[in-house]
Design goal:
Helix content: 40-55%
Shape: globular
Mean pLDDT: 92
Low-confidence stretches: none
Structural class: alpha+beta
Length: 230
């Protein structure tokens, strides 16, 4: 574990406050998108989770083969009061239907933070724009597809200003590493990857606010399908 004090303001605090114009928030989104894209410039020899302090990667089966079984296990552990049985079954079916799409990115071996959200990013307003000071909390990071980090950021995007999200998505696409061919539907593939996280989040104990948000998203996707993203 490495601990170091870094000055900066949590992005969540900036996005929930007033005093910034739409243009300013667009610039902020673009800077965050650039930094998140550049995290994916780091490569490893294979996909999987880190096994030790040397960032050795423990080999994993393709994500496309794991999504359905992870969803099954998580739904079995989800409190009945949060998601009823029919919704849990429908979620597993939805994961099974979309899992084959992940075969297109199963071989990605990029650094993925896996918990990119406004609480884990520190920023500072500069005269010339915005600066990302730090990206915090790397405990869930792994070697895989960077589209998952973009999906993490937009997961609860309805809570953020539209200008910020537009700037983030545009810059994330523009600043992908030169040797990574960005899939035209990278946003949609990211949402399918995010089904892993949503499945896990709803297993949290009753009263967990993020778990309740995740449950609401699962209900919406079951009813309406996965929303398109670009």
């Amino acid at each position: 574990m490495v601990l170091e004090y870094v000055a900066g303001t949590p992005l969540s605090q900036v996005l929930s406050g007033d005093g910034f114009s739409g243009t300013s928030l667009g610039d902020l989104g673009a800077e965050v998108g650039r930094v998140v894209a550049e995290i994916g410039a780091v490569t490893f020899g294979r996909r999987g989770f880190f096994a030790d302090e040397h960032l050795s990667v423990r080999a994993e089966r393709p994500w496309s083969q794991q999504l359905c079984e992870v969803a099954e296990a998580c739904m079995a552990a989800t409190p009945e009061a949060r998601l009823d049985r029919a919704t849990r079954r429908a979620w597993v079916d939805l994961c099974a239907a979309h899992a084959p799409a992940l075969t297109r990115i199963d071989d990605h071996t990029r650094l993925v933070h896996a918990d990119i959200n406004p609480k884990n990013i520190l920023v500072t307003r500069m005269h010339s724009g915005w600066r990302v000071d730090a990206v915090l909390d790397w405990e869930f990071s792994y070697s895989g597809c960077p589209y998952g980090d973009a999906a993490n950021m937009v997961r609860f995007g309805a809570d953020y200003p539209a200008r910020f999200l537009d700037g983030f998505c545009r810059a994330f696409a523009e600043h992908q590493p030169a040797d990574l061919a960005l899939a035209e539907d990278w946003g949609n593939l990211g949402r399918v990857l995010d089904m892993f996280a949503l499945s896990d989040l709803v297993t949290r104990p009753a009263g967990h606010p993020i778990a309740e948000q995740a449950a609401e998203q699962i209900r919406r996707w079951v009813m309406e399908g996965i929303p398109r993203c670009s």
